[in-house]
Amino acid sequence: MRKRYTAEQREKLIAEVRATGEQVSVIAKRLGVSSSAAYLWMKGEAALAPSAPVFARVGPARASSLQLEVAGAALTVESGFDAELLRQVVAALSGST
Fold first, then answer.
1. Domain count within the chain
2. Residue 35: what are its φ and ψ, rounded to 5°?
């Protein structure tokens, strides 16, 4: 039989992950929640966030750059990039502008 969790447990876990940036599994263990339930909650929360871009792939291109794909467009981000410009590009590609 599956364990049932309350809405308060779900909200507390999500809030703590967002506030601390700790791994979901670490917070889930501390709160007595199964890791699988916690990851499902976080996945559902991410799907509800309208402005959150979905990155299909992120990986190193070179030692000083990062290759990522957003909405089918491949981007290479070099060290020293303009973070605000990158946010604008990602927002435009994900349709959240």
1. 2
2. -60, -40
CB contact at 8 A, 17 and 24: yes
* pTM for this entry: 0.47
As given in the structure block, the two tokens for residue 64 are: 């000083």
Assess whether pLDDT exceeds 60 at residue 2. yes
In the predicted structure, residue 94 carries a pLDDT above the cut 90? no
Instruction: Please report the beta strands in 1-97, taking only residues with DSSP state E, as ranges in sequence order.
Output: 55-60, 65-70, 73-78
Average pLDDT, the chain: 77
Strand partners, 6: none
User: What is the spatial distance between Cα 63 and Cα 61, in angstroms, rounded to a whole number?
Assistant: 7
35 and 65 in a single domain? The answer is no
Residue 80 domain boundaries? 55-94
Q: What's the rounded Cα separation, in Å, for the pair 24 and 41?
A: 10
Query: Are both 41 and 59 inside the same structural domain?
Result: no
Contact between 81 and 65 under an 8 Å Cβ cutoff? The reply is: no
